[in-house]
Write a structure and sequence with these properties.
- The protein contains 13 helices and 21 strands.
- The chain is of the alpha+beta class and 477 residues long.
- A hairpin with a 4-residue loop joins strand 5 and strand 6.
- The protein starts with 14 loop residues before the first strand and ends with a strand.
- 53% of the residues are buried.
- It binds flavin-adenine dinucleotide.
- Flavin-adenine dinucleotide binds next to strand 3, helix 4 and strand 10.
């Protein structure tokens, strides 16, 4: 019998998982099943002190670091080959102060954890639209969701953060403490430290909201999108909308004969009184000949997890994304032409309607950029494990071609939608030159050695002259 090698991390009370542990394969798996990386160690932290101990240990042992929040990033940056994963998945506590309307959330929590606790008080903050997405990566990249037009992006609701720095020190960032770091955390991704706790502002939402999708046949796509363009131009801030183009998912709430039928859906959530939502959605629901209308009074927490099963862990995913200059006839024609060319019934494209409160925040208030984009699109190639050759190849080609066709209409990109083959130039595209330079200065101050580089990387300003960007956004000397 071979002896297990037990690694001790000084000052660490959590679990250290190595390749000879029975749960190693589960612990290294992330949401995207195409990602297959083998870290030397996974340090499953129990609290902030463990995170600090793991960072110091990694540095002393010359190990690369990956930080795992919810493990949802499509590029798989929560896990690395050879190095150490600082795994926050056991740090999911959420506390709510209903009087001050604020919430403290540990860095490994999922959005379902946050909604569950905050909705117990009839409160919410802008979070992702799938409840098994992590708060960590989503919050640090920007955070778009149903409530953003009324209450801003997730970063606009972030009031402060506890951060373990590249030195292994524990500091707080807010408008008063380390304000430049706080600016960078609100959009600059996981480049500046490990966030062990987020503090969000909360708003009264629901608990029942008017929400759900309306589906029309794929043949009606052009007409639906032209109508949608006018409909959202006058939409109140309370109304969040997402267009989904693909096939109708086989959900229990949809009759079986409609499952997998090519269709365009407009899904909505009205963050205000149900009666007002009913009025606001009237024209949309009356448009054309819907195949099925699932809009109705719904518990906000249920709406937040309604599509969870359509994007399960372990399937294979590949994304391409861009912000759009607008919904011109040319954009609509391109979207209608390419959206249904996917061969997998699970693939789809989704367009988020931004604007409202997102656009009212000055562009230099946070590191998140692209506030003037009214719409963005994400093209999601999805296939099952074992179908890489037969379906995966054509699906990834479909996503790339679709993005290529949108080239004349592109206007930046949301950093959290970038995949592993989106290179360093796309990270710059996400921020633009001025914001990227400011982020690089903050990076040089808080992480000059680029310890946190297994991400959509911001290269520290002082090192940039000495380094060469590699295709995946990492750097080498
Ligand atoms: C099904 C699905 C739905 C999505 N829906 C939305 C949506 O509605 N709105 C939206 O804005 N985005 C959405 N996203 C994109 C999402 O924002 C990113 O995938 C994000 O990276 C997920 O965060 P995570 O913590 O789960 O990811 P992880 O893979 O764990 O982390 C990604 C990166 O973030 C950093 N990171 C994570 N946690 C921390 C932390 N606590 N401290 C420091 N760094 C950290 C690390 O650099 C890490 O590599 C969705 C993604 C998926 C897969």
């Amino acid at each position: 019998m071979t002896e297990r090698t037990t690694v001790q991390i000084p000052g660490f009370r959590g679990d250290v998982i190595a390749s000879d542990d029975h749960d190693y394969d589960d612990a290294r798996a992330v949401w995207n099943g195409t990602v297959d990386r083998r870290p030397r160690l996974i340090a499953r932290c129990r609290g902030t002190a463990d995170v600090a101990a793991a960072v110091r240990f990694a540095r002393d042992s010359d190990l690369g670091i990956a930080v795992r929040g919810g493990g949802h990033n499509v590029a798989g940056t929560a896990v690395c080959d050879d190095g150490i994963v600082i795994d926050l998945s056991a740090m999911r506590a959420v506390s709510v102060d209903p009087v001050r309307r604020r919430s403290h959330v540990q860095g490994g929590a999922l959005w379902g954890d946050v909604d569950h606790e905050t909705q117990a008080h009839g409160l919410a903050t802008t979070g992702g639209i799938v409840s098994h997405t992590g708060v960590g990566g989503l919050s640090l990249g920007g955070g778009i969701g149903w409530l953003m037009r009324k209450h801003g992006l997730t970063v606009d609701n972030l009031e402060g953060a506890e951060v373990v720095t590249a030195e292994g020190n524990i500091i707080r960032a807010s408008a008063e403490e380390h304000p430049e770091l706080f600016w960078a955390l609100r959009g600059g991704g996981g480049n500046f430290g490990v966030v062990t706790s987020f503090r969000y502002g909360l708003h009264p939402v629901g608990p029942t909201v008017m929400a759900g999708p309306v589906f029309w046949s794929a043949e009606d796509t052009t007409e639906v999108l032209r109508f949608y363009r006018e409909f959202v131009a006058d939409a109140p801030d309370e109304l969040g909308n997402i267009v989904r183009l693909g096939t109708i998912p086989p959900l229990a709430v949809v009759s079986e004969e409609l499952h997998f039928r090519p269709a365009i859906a407009v899904a909505s959530c009205y963050a205000g009184p149900v009666e007002d939502g009913e009025r606001a959605l009237g024209a949309l629901r009356r448009f054309g000949r819907p195949l099925v209308d699932l809009v109705g009074p719904t518990r906000y927490v249920d709406h937040q997890s309604g599509i969870d099963d359509t994007v399960p862990h372990g399937w294979h995913y590949y994304w391409k994304a861009t912000n759009l200059t607008g919904l011109s006839d040319a954009v609509i024609d391109t979207v209608a032409e390419h959206a249904y060319r996917a061969t997998s019934p699970w693939s789809y494209a989704a367009m988020f309607h931004l604007g409202g409160a997102v656009a009212r925040v000055p562009h230099d208030a946070t590191a998140y950029q692209g506030r003037d984009a009214e719409h963005n699109i994400i093209i999601d190639a999805v296939w099952l494990p074992g179908e890489d050759e037969t379906v995966g190849s054509p699906e990834t080609a479909w996503a790339r071609e679709f993005l290529g066709a949108l080239q004349p209409h592109r206007a930046g990109v949301y950093v959290n939608f970038l995949d592993s083959d989106d290179d360093a130039s796309r990270v710059r595209e996400a921020y633009g030159g001025e914001t990227y330079r400011r982020l690089a200065e903050v990076k040089a101050r808080y992480d000059p050695e680029n310890v946190f580089r297994n991400n959509k990387n911001i290269v520290p300003a002082e090192r940039r002259l000495k380094t060469t960007d590699t295709a995946d956004g990492r750097w080498t000397d």
